[in-house]
TrEMBL record:
Origin superkingdom: Bacteria
Protein name: Uncharacterized protein
Length: 82
């Protein structure tokens, strides 16, 4: 069995994720195996790519998506008061 660190590296490479995406997936309680299982195939055009899927789930749960640069989160256009 591969070490957990290697599993995350494999998921990062195969799912084309960056470190912020991996951190969001961990905060959502996902495992590398669940990310790899949810890579859409050609017969599953309704599935989002894993990166977009993580971002959507994270935004639904926490209300924002982490940015790579660590800066403040920008509000969505829907959240603007005017």
């Amino acid at each position: 069995m591969a070490a957990p660190r290697n599993s995350w590296a494999e998921a990062k490479k195969k799912c084309r994720l960056n470190q912020a995406d991996i951190q969001m997936a961990k905060e959502l309680g996902m495992s590398p195996k669940s990310l790899l299982k949810n890579i859409p195939s050609r017969q599953e055009p309704w599935k989002l790519p894993v990166k977009q899927w993580i971002h959507e789930l994270y935004e639904d749960k926490f209300g924002f998506v982490k940015q790579m640069n660590g800066g403040k989160q920008q509000p969505k256009e829907d959240d603007l008061p005017f």
